[in-house]
Design a protein that fits this description.
The chain is an alpha+beta fold and about 220 residues long. The chain has 2 domains: about 40 residues; about 140 residues. The chain is about 15% helix and about 30% strand. A hairpin with a 6-residue loop joins strand 9 and strand 10.
Length: about 220
Amino acid sequence: MIFPRFAPLALLMFFLVLPARASWISPFISEIHYDNKGADAGELVGVSGPVGLDLSDWQVILYNGADGRPYRSVSLSGQLAGSAGEWAEAYWPMAGMQNGPDAVALYSAADGLIDFVAYEAGLTASAGPASGATARVLPLSEGGSTAIGSSLQRVGGSGDWDWVLASATPGILNPGLVGFEVERVPSMGAWALWLAGIAAWLFWSSVRTPRQMPLKCGVRE
């Protein structure tokens, strides 16, 4: 029998393991190329995430800086390929990508807006899946003097917002990204912690039964 007086203990266990369930790093936009000297070539958007991530029902959406509205969207599919427990990048060609100031959004039908980055100037979306959100502005930009075959790439750790202009690495995890192979807690492990908490609660409740007072038998004289 489970007693109400043990409910606080159960709630404590539940909330202690919730952070483990949520402690994984969201996929993010990791590479962009939109402008170079001469005719634009090799325009792309790259997305990095944990190997095995299913990108079905995800989208990359290009936003116009002039009005904050989408001007193109690309539906994603498939899974990020690579060695288990590591991170990988997938990319999509974006011929005709505007030179800016504009923005790029990464959107999941299940989880909503995942990432939103602007280049050359800030942008707040006025329509589409990112409506009302303000994009984070990249610290670098491309232009008419940018070498063909270059791209803007995110580098550093999960808490960093560092970008570099370097030779494009489409489909290859940026060389400057560090620590992403070990910073994701597998959901299976978190569920195991959650179930262990429930099991401990049930066991504790079963052994801590109310103390029974002995019955007194009286004798009539």
